[in-house]
Amino acid sequence: MPPKVDSTEVKIITVKVFGGEPGPASTLAPKLGPLGLNAKKIGDEIIALGKKAHEGIRVMIQLKCQNRQAELSIIPTSSALLIKELGNHARDRKKVKNVKHTGDLTLEQIKKIAKVLESEGRSQANSFAGTVKQVLGTAMSVGCTVNK
């Protein structure tokens, strides 16, 4: 018999899903079952959370589980913020494959993304300039260009 779950303990689960789509039940159910949470209900909450601003973008979702209650939040990643800033990210994943995210961003947009990452504590750079360089590198790997 499995051990009892401590109701005061906070369990943090992170899942990477496409915004507006439920997380894969095969990965959510084994993580949520021992905590007494319903995977279908959490999947519906993930759909509602991601449909607002991150439709079609792969984002990190953080679940804070305590006392059979889950609190969901979106953790911004630099690639997700860049694709969102480029726009034109909604697509049918089953029909459209291997999308190249091409476009131009300004340095101000890059600084705005770097500020969001730094305020969330997602960058491990020592200075703001290091965070900007990190976002520029991610922009290069995503496939967009940056203008001054």
Which characteristics define this entry?
two-stranded parallel sheet, 5 helices, alpha+beta, 3-stranded antiparallel beta sheet, elongated, 40% helix, 148 residues
Descriptive notes:
By secondary structure, this protein is of the alpha+beta class. Helices cover 40% and strands 20% of the residues. The protein contains five helices and five strands. The strands form two sheets. It has a three-stranded antiparallel β-sheet with strand order 1-2-3, with helices on one face. A two-stranded parallel ribbon has the order 4-5. Strand 2 and strand 3 form a beta hairpin. The longest helix has 15 residues. It is elongated and about 55 Å long.
The number of strands is 5
Give the low-confidence spans: none
**Shape, per Cα inertia axes:** elongated
The main β sheet shows up as: 3 strands, antiparallel
